[in-house]
Structure formats: structure tokens, C-alpha cells
């Protein structure tokens, strides 16, 4: 094998540097630290779980794990409880991400123009996403309390009756969706806002001359500029909301019954409470598979749009 | 009429946006208000907007009385210092490593570039709760459990996917003609990166920093499991105000939330202009 | 005996040669009773062996205590020498080999035997034995018998009882109105509650449920007030803890783990007694605050509502009593009294069976002999009469009969008498490793019934079906 000069000329540290600095190695060199970190801290544990998902390992038994092939996956896919959790998660993701887009977009429109005190008012809107899940979960649970909560107090001013939003499965899902969307709409707003700010002035000036309607202006000028960012926001928020655990655990604990139990909560129960360690790993990979499908779909859409533009 | 002319919205716009902002902020306002209330006031319905404020809750964050009546520190200072150090270090690391990688992915595509990018993204897709045991195991084997290096490394890796994706989208959108002509003039790749490319994405760096900081600052489950008494961060201490003999210690909880909010709030406020320009930088481009 | 000799030689040799520095690290939830243990150990504990022993408690938030301990144990971290464990976790971690079986140490040590004899049998049964042995057998064996396997000691034992507002229950006008309606006065003094049944409890609930605008004890209400409340919440084990009391009092019960594999589930868990008991439990929720409809009425929610003066009487744990009589946190601090929990009249006597609460602490299995000895010395220090009395005076609870029999014991806190008198009625939930799976499913079904989606009978049928299959799969049922 032909060794690079730097390796043979060991006397020169600069030789190694020069070798590393070669243009064809620039990509791998720059990427290496990131890949190494991810490999060590994220990908190795992931692979370990993946391997585990083919056994019948239970963390609270001393018996040697037995290789079970695809049994865990087959069991999970044949289990109605699992499908029920996927549907619940889908509802929460759709509701919350949808609401985040609407609210985030609305807020962005409000803050796109400059006006006095804009900087300060914008900070007020950004604060929710700076909070931890624990604080949001605990406080929203209090807000939803039919006797001590602000929501019920507010509703009772009109109805005269205490309002228990979490008394029905649909209400409980709304309770989660509202808390999550409140927390993360500012994230969507930021991305959209950045898009709005980037629209070149002359386009609007031209539209002004053409006396284009508001809707038309929005459709032909504004939207194309924010579209990419909206999709990016959609991607990240979908992935994150799919993992919803803390808010559900704190606000409803999955109730009433199992109406708000997401797959993340279910995977936690499987792995951490029922000690079905291998089954929980398999569950994790089912989740991963679904999120990958969703993400690919999203990336495919982005690519298509991009090629349409060209 | 320009879309962004100075104060073009006027005070009318301030009124409308202000109203919305205040409503949106109300739950946070409530948390902050609770930090100054006694427990009975905190839970009073109809809600109390006018009350005698107390600083007792803030005091209780930092000092406590032991069973023998001694007044001692709760160690909260250490938790705040830990949070600042751990979040600061890991966000900075993620930003450096992530920006370099993003630049490479944008300018020197590897074979299977998109696949790498996608795999990087997938590491953020699993609910953390399901990878806890293997990560815990890894930390035990490497002796990283309870150390600063361990938790910093972990948070760095959590922030990498987002940093790489964000920064790559910035680099992709830059006008390469400037870079190419600089190269033509004999500048090295490093000089191009340092003097031409980086200044154009400062806003992007600011935006990435803020997002990464927010996520790291509030991370709870891994902090709970992988920090020891000496490296514990504030979110774990916040969780400790819940579930004692009084359920939720509303006052202390809110006081901690309020104090803990201040640093991220300041950073975000300071970087706000960058943040807005940042997430796309179209203004620079045109 | 040989082991004992060897060990004592080792200790003697150890103390003679040089004092070692030993740290006993204990995982514990972050709250008063464990904070007290740390403070008091810092102040008073010196190891009798002459070694330099420090107890170092790792305080973990209550809400995530199980997650932390579980992750530590399952990863094989071996970080802790002692662990505060919920009694129900015993089976899980004993079968995984993490908790140390104490028999040989107790066998060899008269002091430890004396402790096991002094700890209340209900607590030995719930906190220490695995496989589970019921309290009656522990009592018959005099606390310690070699054929029973022991693991834990009480760190904080707990039981629930009634908290009530004496300003309402002693109000003359209210008493007159109640007597006119129900033919008997309200229970004003704590002793009056000794005869109270669930039927009476329901009457108090109906009677004290008032809406804004009505009067209560002579005052016009600006907000609604509710009659009664007990735990009915999905998180953790909330509803199960209270429902179990009803099942046992009605003569029904749960799957009897101490009789596996003969003990059955079908026909036991969904027996007519259990169904009637559960229906009664559900019907009494009508007089609770509206949070009951959401299945989120946990121990802290009722504590908060009670402290805000929204409920006339509740049933809650001893652990939660202190803030209720503290004017800094409670608006009803001056008007709260404690009493026995209502019971069910069966065969002419009131049955007050209830589900034990609180936590034992255990030793872990990977420590060397010296550390184990030192840890056991810490146990002896903690369960000495002097330490336990200090713990009770600081607002904790003791599981030692000698402490509870102290003539002054009842005066150390206003609820001590009711803890002491409730203790003999305590039974515990299952301890088998399948416990969590059974509990989670049961909480879900109970929650459906509490939120009105299914009936009591349907819920219990679902629970029975699930447990039958699970326990058969696990080989615990023939």
C-alpha cells in the first residue's frame, strides 16, 4: 500500500497537517468530529437497542435472553393497544402541529412589520418555548383544574358551571394539544417571520403598482418565500411532537382511560414499568420506522417543489 | 409602500400586536406572579391579581432550615452554575462541530451525502425514554456517569443534528460567486470560510445558538439519570419541588422557573435582531 | 453461625487495625422524612465499629424516583449501598438479584431480630417479605421466622385516614339541619368518627355540597364547596390505593399472591362483593369536586382543594397531613381535625381494611461484607427507639410498636393516634414482578369507570381477564 508522504516523513507535524489539508480530504475531515460524536453517543446505543429487539430480554429477570427473531415486532403489530396508541399520537401530532402552523403563521404576520415596542412584545411571545416541559405540564394541569384552574373560572363566568376539560377523551386530547401548541407556536413563528422579513421590498412595490389583491400578493410573493421554512418547521415539529411524553405524563397521565396515551408513553411503560425491555426496543424501532417514512415523504415533497421552481 | 419601512405599522399595530402578545404571555405571567405569592394566594379562585408580594419563595430556593433549626444553603447556586456551564459548553461545541460539518456537507459533498444527513436526523427521532438504558450502560462502562464531560458530550450530540441541518440550509443559500471569485484571487479555502462565508451566516449561528440553548437548558430526563449530586442541573431541582408532602410547592417552583428563565431570556433578547434576520438572511442575499 | 463468627472476627480485626472510610450511599426520594434521616445522621451517627462511616443520601425528585433507581439498577451501575424502595417494587428487584436477602444477618444478630419483632407485623409483611407473607402469619411467627425471606425495613410507613373541618362538622345550625334530614348529628369530635360508615360518609358528602350563593356554617358562599373526596386518579397507584380498601372491606379482594399458584383471579377480582364495593366507591364520587370526573383526583389535588377550604372532609395519607395544619400553607389550618377513615359494616362490625403506604429501605446485593455490616449498623441506628422518636417528633412516622406504644406518642402530632390505630388494618398490593403491568392496566380500567365510560362490573371483568392471562403466562396461576 502506498502511504502518503506525511506518514513516512514523521519528522514533520506540518506534513500531517498538509496531508489533512488536501482538498479531497476536506469534506471527510470537517465532518469527522460530528460523525464520531454521534456514533459514540447516539448511534451505538441505538444499535444496541436494535439488537436487543430480537431477543426476549427482560431487565428484571436473571434468565439468559433467548433469540426470538421477529417475534417482538409481530406481537406488537398484532396488538390492538399499539395501534390505538399510534392513532392517539397521530391525532395529537396533527392537532398540535396544525395549530402551531396556524398560530405561528398568524403571529408572524402580526410581527412582520416594524412598529414601536416590537422588540419587547416579540419577546413576550417567544417566552413559552423557553420553559421546560415540567413547568408547562404542571402549570397547565393547574389551569385545567375545574375548581382551582383559570380556564374553568373563565368559562364559568359565562356558563355558571365549572368546566372540566379533561373529563372526556376528546377534551383531554385538546388539553394536551393546546399546551403543546402554545409552547411551540413561537418556534414556527420565528421561522415564518424570518421568511417574511426576507421578502425583497421591490416585489411588494411592484405588486403595489399592479394593484394586486392582498390574497394574490400573499400567494405569489409572500408564500413562496416562507414555504421552505414552513416545511422545515413542519418537519422538526412533527418529529418532536411524535415523541410527546412529558406533557402527557404530567397533564393527563394518558387518561381518561388510555385516551391520551401516546406511543412514547406506551414505550416507556413497556420498557420501564413492565420490564419488557426487548419489546420496548422493538417498539422504539417501529416508531423510528414511521418517523423515517414521514420524514422521507416530507423531504421528497421539498425536492419536488424545488425542482418545480427550476 | 415598503413592507418593512421603519415603524410603518405605527402605534395602531403596537396596540393590536400588544394585545395578542399579552394574551399569549399570560400563562408565563401567571407563573412569574405565583413566584411572589403565598401558597393560599397562588391557588385562590377567583385569581388574585392584587396581593401582598413575598420574597419568601426566592429565599426558599437558596436556603432551607434543617430539622435542627439550622439555616443552610440548598445548593441551588451549584445547580445554576452547573446548568450554565453544561449548557454553555455543549451548545458551543455543537455549534463549532456542527458548523464545520454543515459547511462540508454543503461545499464538499461526500459520496452518499444525503444519506449521512438523513442518518444524522434520525438520531433525533426516537423518544429519549427508549434509549435511556443503553446510554446509561454506555456511561457506566466509560465511567462518564455523573461527570461534566459525560453530560456535555451527550448534549452536544443532541444538538448536532439540528445545528448541522440549520447551518447547512444557510450555507446552501449563500451566493457562491463571491467565494469563487475570492478563490480566484488566491485566497485559501480556510480564508474563504473565515472571512467571507462565516460573516454571512452570523445571523444563522445566532438562531442556531438560541434554539440549541433552549433545548439544552431545559433538558430533564438525561439530567435526572446521568448527573450526580455535584453535576446536577436546575431542571432536576425544579422537579424536586413536586411530590413532597405538599404536592406541588407552587411558590418555590415558580421562583425557580422565573430565575431559570432570566438567562435564556436575556440571551434571546440580545440576539433577537440576528435571530430575525437570521433564520433566512434574505436581506443579505439581495 | 460460622459465618457470624468469621464476620465478627473481621469486624474486630478491622476496628483494631485501622479505621476505614466508608460511604454508605443511599438513593432516596427528595422530601422531609429522608432529609431528616440525612440531617440526623450527620448530627448523631457514629459507627460502633470505629470505622469512619458516612451516610450519603442521593436525593432524587419524587416524581422520577422510580425511573432513576430503575435505570441505575438495570444498567448494573452498582452505585448505591442502600435504596429506599416502594414496597411493591420488591419482587422486581429481588428477582433481578439487586436487593440483599437479610435472613442470615437477622438469624445471626439478636438486635436485628428484636427490631423485626418490634416492627409492626403489617409493615414486616408489606415492607420486608418476598415472596409475600401476610401480616397474620408474621404475627403468629412473632415477627421473625427463618422460613420467611426478609429484605426491607421501614423508612417511612404510611396510612390514610380522615381529615375534616371541625368548623363545619361542629357547627350547631349545620348539625340541626343534618339531624333533621338524616336523624343523627354530624361527627364533631374525632371519637364520633369511630362509628362512621361509608353510607354516613355519603350523607356528609351530599349534605355539605353547596353552590355559590348558598350558606355554609352561617356564611354566604362566593364559590362552590364540595362534601367529600378521596383519591380517584389515574397517575401512579392513586385510585387503586383507595379502591383496594373498599374491596377488602366488602369481603372481596385482590389476587392473593401469597397463595400462588392456587389463588385464582377469575371470580375473585370480579366477584359480586368486589363489584358492589367498586360501585359504592364510584357513587361516592358524586359528592367530590368536579376534578373527580377527569380521573385526575390524586392525593395532592384533594390536599390542595382541602387546604383551600373547598371540601368538608377528605381521606389522605399521614405524609400529607403536616401542611394542612400549617397556617402558612392552609386556610383551614386552625379548624382541621383528624379521625379514623370510615368503614363498612359487615357482620355487625366495622371493617376498616386499607392499603398500606410508605416506603421501606433495603440493602443492595453487591456490597462486600464490611460495607454490609456497616449498612446494617446504620439500619440499627435508624430503627433505634431514640432515632425513631426524633423522626416522629420531626413530623415523620415510625413502624416500631415500642414507639407507638409510648404514652406520649399520640401527643407528638394531631394525627398520630389515627396512624397508630389504622396500622393493624393495613394490607398491601401485590409484590410480584408483574405488579407494574397489573397496576397500569388496572388503573386504566378503573379510570374508565371513574370517568363514566364503562361500568364497575365491566372494569373489573376487564381487569380479571387481563390478570388471568398475564399470571398464567408468568406461571403464577394453575
From TrEMBL, chain B:
User: What topology in the membrane does the UniProt record assign?
Assistant: Multi-pass membrane protein
Keyword list (alphabetical) reads: Cell membrane, Membrane, Transmembrane, Transmembrane helix, Transport
Q: Give any Gene Ontology cellular component.
A: plasma membrane
Could you name the domain of life of the organism this protein comes from?
Bacteria
Keyword Transmembrane attributed: yes
Q: Name one GO biological process term.
A: transmembrane transport
Residue span, ABC transmembrane type-1 domain: 80-271
Protein localization: Cell membrane
InterPro entries, alphabetized: BP-dep_ABC_trans_perm (IPR050901), MetI-like (IPR000515), MetI-like_sf (IPR035906)
Q: Which CDD domains match?
A: TM_PBP2
A UniProt-annotated Pfam family: BPD_transp_1
Please give the family membership noted in the entry.
Belongs to the binding-protein-dependent transport system permease family.
The protein in question is named Sugar ABC transporter, permease protein
Automatic annotation (TrEMBL), chain C:
Q: Which SUPFAM superfamilies match?
A: Periplasmic binding protein-like II
Signal peptide location in the record? 1-19
| Transport recorded as keyword | yes
Tell where it localizes: Periplasm
Keyword Ion transport recorded: no
Superkingdom is Bacteria
According to the UniProt record, one GO cellular component term is:
periplasmic space
Q: What is its main location?
A: periplasm
Q: What keywords is this UniProt entry annotated with?
A: Signal, Transport
What family classification does the UniProt entry report for this protein? Belongs to the bacterial solute-binding protein 1 family.
Q: What PANTHER family does the record tag this protein with? A: ABC TRANSPORTER PERIPLASMIC-BINDING PROTEIN YCJN-RELATED, ARABINOSE-BINDING PROTEIN-RELATED
Which named protein is this? Uncharacterized protein
Organism of this sequence: Oceanicola granulosus (strain ATCC BAA-861 / DSM 15982 / KCTC 12143 / HTCC2516)
